[in-house]
């Protein structure tokens, strides 16, 4: 076994390794290219493939660090392990440890102060899938500390639902509407003011990739944006996080989130209402299955019938 640099030419081999070992999360080559190689935050010097004597990929580690020149609040001191995977047949031979040690040593040499498992820009997971308890224990032995739980939630609607009535687009002094491209700057300004960081970053990338606004529901009061909800489907400008695992479903998968309401306007039930608006639009598009990803607000979403589908354990290591 030896460690070699990762390269896009090995995407088919990497996807095959993934699908042979993580069938609950079916990997598409297009998703692997988008989330790993097309992300300019990928840290090639910390990332490696493990290959056998026949040069077959038997393990991989993809690492990232913040490298984009954007005025957005993202953690400059963090390094991310996007994925660490070793083929079942080659485990317990120290391969995973070699891959991780290489990444950790590289991160330390460039001043990274903490390493986070998942949660990277264009992440696959917000942590380790909880059913993989063996990996959780393994990372704990390597000094990674449990930071809590997150969930993907799912609700599947009837095949032939009752006719969808027109959603109430105005409630009192607020209104819900699909974002128009002309409102892009006002929307980004709202995110910068109320939700600086990851959500702002993801919206900036959405527009850079040609998004026109149909993936965002905005909540307005006196013509001012006070809240938002993102919705995704197969026609979104890129594969969004809550539809990553769409191949698990025979019908089209839709996604809800993130969402947020201006802190000055909370406590009025507007968060739940804007989720209902997003669900209504996805249902109008004929979508039966909807996922809400990466959340700890299980009780909140259960009010709308959403239940835990996948569970993740978050880990990080400080230096």
Compact overview of the structure:
This protein is an alpha+beta fold.
What does it look like?
By secondary structure, the protein is an alpha+beta fold. 27% of the residues lie in helices and 29% in strands. Strands 1, 2, 3, 4, 5, 6, 7, 8, 9, 10, 11, 12, 13 and 14 form a 14-stranded mixed beta sheet that branches. β12 (253-261), α7 and β13 form a beta-alpha-beta unit. It starts with a strand and ends with a strand. The mean pLDDT is 95.
What is the string of SSEs from the N terminus onward? Answer: EHHEEEHEEHEEEHHEEEHEHE
Count of all domains = 2
- The Rg value, from CA coordinates, equals 21 Å
- Looking at the overall shape, the CATH architecture of the largest domain is 3-Layer(aba) Sandwich
Dominant shape: globular
Alpha plus pi helix count: 8
The low-confidence runs, each spanning 5 or more residues with pLDDT under 50, are: none
């Amino acid at each position: 076994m030896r460690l070699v640099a990762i390269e896009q030419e090995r995407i088919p081999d990497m996807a095959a390794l993934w699908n042979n070992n993580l069938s609950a999360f079916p990997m598409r080559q297009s998703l692997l290219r988008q989330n790993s190689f097309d992300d300019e935050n990928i840290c090639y010097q910390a990332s490696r493939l493990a290959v056998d004597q026949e040069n077959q990929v038997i393990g991989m580690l993809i690492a990232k660090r913040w490298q984009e020149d954007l005025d957005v609040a993202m953690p400059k001191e963090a390094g991310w392990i996007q994925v660490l995977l070793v083929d079942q047949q080659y485990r317990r031979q120290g391969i995973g440890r070699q891959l991780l040690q290489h990444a950790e040593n590289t991160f330390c040499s460039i001043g990274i102060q903490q390493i986070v498992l998942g949660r990277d820009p264009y992440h696959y997971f917000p942590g380790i899938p909880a059913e993989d308890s063996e990996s959780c224990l393994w990372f704990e032995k390597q000094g990674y500390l449990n930071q809590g739980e997150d969930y993907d939630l799912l609700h599947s609607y009837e095949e032939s639902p009752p006719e969808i009535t027109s959603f109430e687009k105005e409630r009192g002094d607020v209104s819900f509407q699909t974002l128009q491209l002309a409102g892009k700057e006002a929307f980004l300004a709202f995110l910068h003011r109320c939700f600086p960081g990851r959500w702002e970053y993801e919206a900036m990338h959405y527009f850079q990739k040609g998004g026109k606004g149909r993936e965002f529901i905005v909540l307005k009061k006196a013509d001012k944006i006070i809240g938002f909800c993102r919705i995704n489907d197969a026609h979104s400008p890129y594969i969004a996080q809550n539809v990553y695992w769409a191949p698990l479903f025979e019908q089209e998968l839709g996604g809800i989130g993130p969402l947020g309401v201006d802190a000055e306007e909370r406590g009025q039930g507007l968060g739940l209402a804007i989720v209902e608006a997003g669900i209504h639009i996805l249902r109008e598009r004929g979508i039966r299955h909807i996922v809400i990803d990466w959340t700890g607000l299980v009780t909140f979403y259960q009010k709308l019938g959403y239940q835990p589908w996948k569970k993740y354990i978050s880990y990080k290591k400080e230096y």
